Amino acid sequence: MECRSTRDPAVEASLSEALAQGLAPDGGLYVPEEWPAFDLAALARARDLPELAARFLAPFAAGDALGVTELAAITREAFDFPLPLVPLAPELYLLELFHGPTAAFKDFGARFLAAALARLGRIATNGAARPLTILVATSGDTGGAVAAAFHRRPGFEVAILFPQGLVSPTQARQLTSFGDNVRAFAVRGSFDDCQRLVKEALRDPELRAERDLSSANSINLGRLLPQAAYYAWASLALERAHAAPASFVIPSGNLGNACACLWARRAGLPIERVVLAHNANRAIPDYLASGRYEPRASRPTLASAMDVGDPSNFERVRTLHPTLAELRGALSACSVDDDAIRSRIRAEFAEHGRIFCPHTATAAEAFARLPAAARARGPWVLVATAHPAKFPEIVAPLISRELELPPSLARLSERSTRSEALAPALSGLRAALLAR
User: Fold this and answer.
1) CB 125 within 8 A of CB 192
2) Which three-class secondary structure state does DSSP give residue 246?
3) Angle of helix 191-202 relative to helix 426-435, nearest 10 degrees?
4) N or C: which end of the chain has fewer CB within 10 A?
C-alpha cells in the first residue's frame, strides 16, 4: 500500500519512506492511499493490544520493508505497558492512555516510531544505522515521549523545541532531563512557532544537505497509525460488551489523536460518534459553527498540551472529509475554558473520587454538555491523555490533596536538566543543528 500527500496525490511514498521523511516533499502530510477492509472478528480474536495492533497495521505495510514479522516485533516492543478501559458508569468508560514511560498518550506513537525507524535503519545499512536527526515540536507531552523513545538509541539524534514558560514545570523537567543524544530548545514563542520551525527545517535545502532529518510530531504518519490501533482495540472490546458501537470524546489540540480515531472508523471499526474537546483554542469548534477556518495565535491555558491555534492534522481531517457538510456529519466539537476545567476537576473528585488532568477534564466537561439523549445512547469513552500528576500545580490545589507520582515521574527530581534558548527563526535552529 502506498501513502500520498494531502496536497498533491501524485506525491507518493511507501510506509517506510513516509515514516523516514516525516513530512511530504511538497509540505503536505502523508495519508494512506486506500483503506483496508478488515475482518473484525479476526481482529477481535487478538490476545492483546500488541497482537491486535500488528494485525491492524499489516495491510498498511503490505509490500513494505516493515513486513508482518517486523510489525509484530515493533508492536510487542512499543506497547509493553497497560491500557486500562475503566468503567465509570454502566455505559461510560475511561480509556487510560497514560501508563507508558512518560505518563501520556504520546508514548504509543513515539515508541512505535522509534522502534520502526531503528529497524528500518538496520535494514537499509545491514546493521549500521545511519544518523537521523528527529525534530519535534511540543506543547508538553510529545517531547518527553519522543525523548524517552529515542534516548541512547544508536544512529539517532533528537531536537525538542518547546515554548519557553508555556509547559508545566513537570513537563519542562521531563523535556530537559535526558541529555546524551537528546537536546532541548526553549523557543521564545508559542507552540505554533515551534511547529512552524520544524516544518521549515524539514524543507530547508541547506539543512537537508548536511543532515538526514525526520519528525516525530503527529505530522509523521508513524505516530497516528499506532494510535488508530488502540481505538480499534477499545471499540472492539466495547462492541463485545454492549453489542453496539462506541463513541469517543477526545481532548484535542493538534488533532493527531482525533485523526487516529477517525481513521479507525474509516477502516471499518465499530465507532459511532466522535466529539472533539478543545480548550480556549477554538479554531475547530468555530469552523464547524461558521464554516470559516480562521487559524490564530495559540492562547495559553490550563490544558497546555492542547494549546494549538493552527492544528497541523486538520489537513488530514479535511482530506478524509472534504466538505463542511461531511465534516459536520463526521464529528462535533466544543470549547472548554479554564474556569470550566477547574470546575470539572473539582466536581469529578468531590462526587466520584476521580482525579483528572486538565486535558481529561476537558473531555469530561464536553461529555457533560452533550444532550441527555445523546449521553444515554452509549457506550461512551472519555479519552484520558495524561496522568494528573504531570500537572500537580493545577490539580492538587483544586482537590486539596497531594498527587501520588508514578515511578517514571518520581525519578525526574533526581535528574539534572539542560536546555538551549532559541529565537523563533529558522536561521537559529539551522545554526544549532549544524554546529553539533
Assistant:
1) no
2) strand
3) 60
4) C
Q: Which of 106, 63, 363 is nearest to 230 (CA)?
A: 106
CB-based contacts of 188, cutoff 8 Å, min separation 6: 164, 421, 422, 423, 424
Q: Which helix (H) or strand (E) holds 404?
A: none
CA atoms within 13 A on the CB side of 33: 16
How far is 392 from 283, CA to CA, in rounded Å? Answer: 28
Q: How far is C-alpha 386 from the chain's CA centre?
A: 11
The residue length of the chain stands at 436
The pTM of the whole model exceeds 0.85: yes
Bridge partners of 156?
132
Cα separation, 313 vs 256, in Å, equals: 6
What is the number of alpha carbons within 13 Å of residue 180 lying toward its C-beta?
12
pLDDT in tens, the chain (436 residues): 899 999 999 999 999 999 988 889 999 999 999 999 999 999 999 999 999 999 999 999 988 888 878 999 999 999 999 999 999 999 999 999 999 999 999 999 999 999 999 988 754 444 444 578 999 998 878 888 999 999 999 989 999 999 998 888 888 888 898 989 999 999 999 988 998 999 999 999 999 899 889 888 888 999 999 999 999 999 999 999 999 999 999 999 999 999 999 999 999 999 999 999 999 999 999 999 999 999 998 899 999 989 999 999 999 999 999 999 999 999 999 999 999 999 999 999 999 999 999 999 999 999 999 999 999 998 999 999 999 999 999 999 999 999 998 888 888 778 889 999 999 999 999 999 998 7
Amino acid at 39: D
